[in-house]
Write a structure and sequence with these properties.
The complex is a heterotrimer of chains A (312), B (260) and C (289). Chain A is mainly α. Chain A contains eleven helices and two strands. The longest helix of chain A is centred in the first third of the chain and has 40 residues. The two termini of chain B are 20 Å apart. The chains are: A mainly alpha (312), B alpha/beta (260), C mainly alpha (289).
């Protein structure tokens, strides 16, 4: 047997194949390196929790009082007389803006997802999908700027209110920001519904809409729920746009025209003015821990629900 | 189980003892034993799902990549226990295998066949040219691709891809070549050409030929084993199978076409 | 032979209504992009000029150009890419080629999803606590780009993993049967055929990184810097932060300037995004198997 290496099999058996060569060692090294890369993500997410907690730890064991933190609307960390660290108003700010955004975004995103997935085709579909993607690419600071420069005067003019930086402004902006990701996940969920469901409905004489309403939507409901949750998570964690478009008053809102302050915006607005290690500084980190925990739960839930879709 | 014509002093090229292969609850092979001697063509015939492909996978340790496959028993290659080998890649290089699914790698035809020699250390263009041409000729596909060596292997026709797969296996310059129903995607004329090549190759290497075509085993194999439902029913000198000089009725039935 | 009954006609009308309604909703989603771009071009366009892009600001940021911010954004993006792309590719290769189906793999996947969902301000806090303070990098390009790298890691991982998994399993088996090691197979067959997909992910990452403000605000970007950065331990200006400050905190800003900055930023992002989309369409046309 011809061999390109200068060896010939010595009778009776050639066992020289069983040697550890450089290929073998390189393969093992590659395996280790890839594994390190793989677990790096876990290291980072744990690291985020750890480092944010370290900086906020002082607050948690010091000035933190559970009932005040979560139930008092008085966020006055710089007060001369009595510092208070109640985030109720801030939570209300985040909740109201996110809630309004979802009110705007959910119907539009679902509607758009249904239209794109079920009613459009070919070039129109491509165009729509690309535009939705471009919508998602706009940076949040640009959105915030739009809220300031465009939406603000618009709201003042249209609704005759004195200030245009409020829940309405930030809500619409946030809705537009969350819409693309919701649309695209909802679209995936709709596409995941097997064609044979649609064919069965059509065979029974259903119109397109009837088929969608009675067959496809119920089948996709897990994925659609997941899409909504992800949108909520996105809205909850958004910083710059909310910072620039909600105004700066810390209060419990009573109408959509009220200015509010969100949790994320508070950190961004105040961190620069604190001294490292001060109570205020640590309290802001404590808010960070809270934000991390909430978005962790939301994302976990969304993932479980969406994964349930793919298995079933 | 009957083994015919064993010689006591020679270490067989490949020896299988009490091999059992299970996939979760399903037993693909049960207590199979056989030997492949040097420079022989060892045929394996039997109906589908008799465990033949699982046997080949166990021999070249491809069960490593299938977590549902459980292998028990002993397989030795050149006397070494394949399950205790240190460099499993070295083992696979000495054993070439052709499965029935034709796979052209998304490289040029030339690079498809040059891949194994390159991995083994051959670098110069001249050496590689020689190997590529020889393997493509032996796989009976040289004439069709010699002017298209830069074409993508994954875009060739099915039959060409199957022969390309054979050429790749040959390019490893293996000691043992295992063919699993290689003629499925190949037309009869080309099959005959490849069969001639196998008869020539027998002088240099050992060959395991798994085939659905009983007559092909008759043409090529020195000894043949009959597998049924995961068991090796018997092994015999090929001619004995066809002249009826075998022990088991089932073997006779299969060979004579009463089932399969 | 079949003529429409009144029920059919009613259903068809309903269908038309629904179609228009949903189409309108989609349009309303799409419209803002058009409107925003138009306004930005209209009000910011006049400000854009060679000077604007390539000279430094003067008169307390109210005049002159935005070059340091533009340069800073590019620097931050490049450094973030240098950190996250190799790590992201390694991670994706592990998940696609090596990872067994066990709890660790599930944990990694969960970590990726969560990392992608962490609010940007929390990334900023992390960057501050870890890189600026704990590792003592101070507020610097290094700290800021590492923070950005971790933030955009999931994008690279997911894009890479998908393009690796798009390579048919049969190719890997064919290589393994020949005695190639896992790494040789990855290096010669799998990775080269996944490159375009990886590029798409990288470009997406660039888009996100360029537009981020919060993570760099406290870790290395600053508004008014008299000098260009000399090393990775220096601070830098950045387009996103520049826009934020110019739009909210600088008095006597000529009206067009914030629009101009926003236009430059969005143009950068949209161009890169279009590149990614074009690349994907090119990919679809070029079949290799």
């Amino acid at each position: 047997m011809e061999q390109s290496q200068a060896q010939s099999p010595s009778p009776p058996c050639d066992t020289r194949f069983d040697r550890l060569n450089s290929d073998w060692y390189i393969d093992k090294l590659a395996q280790v390196l890839m594994f390190v890369g793989g677990i790096s993500v876990i290291v980072f997410i744990v690291g985020i929790f750890v480092f944010v907690s370290i900086e906020g730890f002082g607050f948690l064991v010091g000035k933190f009082e559970f009932s005040e933190f979560f139930f008092s609307p008085d966020w006055r960390p710089t007060s001369q007389t009595k510092e208070t660290y109640g985030i109720l108003a801030l939570m209300a700010g985040t909740a109201s803006v996110t809630g309004f955004a979802m009110l705007v975004a959910i119907p539009f995103s679902l509607g758009a997802a249904i239209y794109i997935a079920e009613f459009s085709s070919g070039k129109t579909r491509e165009f729509l999908k690309i535009t939705v993607e471009l919508l998602a690419a706009i940076p949040s600071v640009v959105w915030g700027f739009i809220g300031l420069a465009i939406m603000n005067p618009l709201i003042i003019q249209v609704f005759h209110v004195p200030v245009g930086l409020n829940i309405l402004n930030a809500g619409i902006i946030l809705g537009l920001m969350a819409a693309p990701i919701m649309t695209s996940i909802a679209e995936d969920a709709l596409k995941a519904v097997p064609d044979r469901y649609r064919e069965a409905a059509e065979a029974m004489g259903a119109t397109r809409w009837q088929m969608i309403y009675r067959v496809v939507l119920p089948a996709a409901k897990n994925g659609l729920l997941g899409a909504v949750l992800l949108g909520v998570g996105r809205g909850f964690g958004e910083t710059m746009a909310v910072l620039m478009a909600t105004g700066h008053s810390i209060n419990l809102p009573t109408s959509v025209f009220d200015s509010v302050r969100a949790l994320t915006a508070t950190i961004a607005a105040e961190l620069g003015e604190t001294a490292v290690g001060s109570n205020h500084y640590q309290a802001l980190f404590a808010i960070g821990i809270f934000l991390f925990a909430v978005t962790f739960v939301i994302n976990l839930a969304a993932d479980l629900i969406v994964r349930g879709v793919r298995k079933g | 189980m009957v083994v015919a014509g064993a010689q006591k002093d020679e270490i067989p090229h490949l020896a299988v003892r009490d091999l059992t292969i299970r996939y979760k609850q399903f037993t693909a092979l049960e207590n199979v034993s056989l030997e492949v001697r040097r420079n022989e063509i060892f045929g394996i015939i039997g109906p589908a799902n008799a465990g033949k492909t699982s046997l080949l996978k166990a021999i070249n340790r491809m069960d490593m990549f299938d977590s549902s496959m459980r292998v028990q028993g002993l397989i030795t290659f050149n006397g070494i226990d394949t399950r205790k080998v240190r460099n499993v890649y070295g083992l696979r290089r000495r054993i070439g295998v052709v499965f029935p699914l034709p796979v052209g790698l998304p490289l040029s035809v030339y690079d498809n066949v040059a891949l194994a020699p390159r991995l083994a250390g051959t670098k110069t263009r001249a050496d590689l040219d020689v190997i590529v041409e020889r393997c493509l000729r032996r796989a009976a596909v040289w004439d069709e691709v010699k002017d298209r060596l830069t074409a993508l292997g994954s875009l060739l026709s099915g039959g060409q891809q199957q022969r390309l797969t054979i050429a790749r296996a040959l390019s490893q310059e293996p000691e043992l070549l295992m063919l699993d129903e290689f003629s499925i995607a190949v037309d009869p004329v080309t099959t005959m050409r490849i069969e001639d090549v196998l008869k020539e190759l027998k002088k240099e290497i050992s060959i395991i030929l798994v085939t659905n075509l009983v007559q092909q085993a008759r043409r090529l194999a020195d000894r043949t084993a009959f597998f049924l439902d995961g068991k090796c029913i018997e092994t015999a000198v090929t001619e004995d199978l066809f002249t009826g000089a075998v022990q088991d009725q089932r073997t006779r039935d299969y060979v004579e076409g009463r089932f399969g | 032979m079949f003529s429409a009954t009144s029920l059919n006609r009613k259903n068809d009308r309903k269908e038309m209504v629904v179609r228009w309604l949903l189409g309108g909703m989609t349009g309303l989603l799409v419209l803002p992009v058009v409107v925003i771009l138009s306004v930005l071009v209209y009000k910011g366009g006049p400000v854009i000029s060679f000077e604007f892009l390539f000279t430094t600001p003067t008169k307390g940021m109210t005049a002159g150009g935005i070059f340091p911010a533009l340069l800073g954004t590019i620097l931050l993006v490049i450094c973030a890419l240098l950190a996250s792309v190799p790590l992201g590719i390694a991670s994706a290769i592990y998940l696609s080629e090596y990872a067994p189906d066990n709890w660790l793999t599930r944990a990694i996947n969960l970590a990726i999803i969560n990392l992608a969902g962490v609010p940007s301000i929390v990334h900023a806090l992390f960057g501050l606590g870890a890189f600026v303070i704990f590792f003592r990098f101070g507020t610097s390009i290094l700290a800021a780009s590492l923070t950005l790298a971790i933030m955009t890691l999931p994008v690279v991982i997911v894009a890479t993993r998908e393009s690796l998994q798009a390579v048919p399993y049969a190719f890997r088996e064919a290589c393994w049967n020949m005695g190639a090691t896992r790494w040789q197979t990855i290096r010669r067959i799998v990775l080269p055929n996944a490159v375009t997909g990886i590029l798409t992910g990288v470009i997406l990452e660039v888009c996100r990184t360029a537009g981020e403000t919060a993570p760099i605000m406290f870790t290395g970007a600053a508004f008014f810097l008299p000098l260009l950065p000399q090393s990775v331990f220096d601070q830098t200006m950045a387009l996103s932060l520049h826009l934020f400050v110019v739009a909210t905190q600088v008095p006597n800003m000529p009206e067009g300037v914030p629009y101009g900055v926003a236009l430059v930023l969005i143009a950068m992002v949209l161009i890169m995004n279009s590149l990614s989309i074009a690349l994907r369409m090119y990919l679809r046309g070029r079949k290799k198997w």
